[in-house]
Amino acid sequence: MFVSLIIPTYNEADNLPPLLAEIFEFLPRNLAVEIIIVDDNSPDGTGAVAEKLAAKYPITVIHRSGKLGLGSAVRAGLAAAKGDVLGVMDADLSHDPTILPQILSSLATNDIVIGSRFLPGSRVDDWPWWRRLISKVGVSLAGKITKVPAEDPLSGYFFLHRRVIAGVTLTTVGYKILFEILCQGNYATLKEIPFHFRKREHSQSKLNAREHLLFLKQLLTYARTPRS
């Protein structure tokens, strides 16, 4: 197994060093892995921090001209990835790396494995009531559209076999690229694993009204598309 882990970044200079340390603490020692950091010209120098970390870890840094959207960052990472297993994590320390061994072992019998915020055993830190409500409504609507039902089809923490997206043209610009993969991808099985969605320590959430509108557009598009 060769794993390509894609980490999009924008103003995550303080988060990258502890995140990479955690990731390599929990990844199996003998695993072939590459980390692809896609930085959108972060004003705080995240790209330069990532380049320095490449002296210690197997990192490739993709420097982009500006803030072009998380979905497009993931697509850029996928295009550069060499692995037969592809993964995506946020850089803000909200995605707990302790479940990485469980995710990777679950890929032996599943096409897609998702870190889920909404399973028994999951925990979410410091979400205001309105954020929980918006997320629950979005998850409920999206879960009715995907090829295989999922408790958290909008997660940003997921791994899959390359064959899942073989021949699939992904177009998502916004945050919900997993949702597009679950609607368009080539897969039959998925597994969800509960995890601790942690409080951000050094960065702000980048979700805004534009991202919600992009997701609404996705919902309408795939609701009209017959499942195959």
Radius of gyration: 16 Å
Note the overall shape.
globular
Indicate the low-confidence ranges by residue numbers.
Answer: none
The biggest beta sheet, please? Answer: 7 strands, mixed
Biggest sheet strand line-up = 3-2-1-4-7-5-8
Work out the helix count.
7
Give me the CATH superfamily. Spore Coat Polysaccharide Biosynthesis Protein SpsA, Chain A
CATH topology: Spore Coat Polysaccharide Biosynthesis Protein SpsA, Chain A
CATH class: Alpha Beta
How many domains, in number, for the residues? Answer: 1
Order of helices and strands: EHEHEHEHEEHEHEEH
Q: Report the β-strand fraction as a percent range.
A: 15-25%
Q: Give the oligomer, counting copies of the same chain as homo and different chains as hetero.
A: single chain
Give the number of DSSP strands: 9
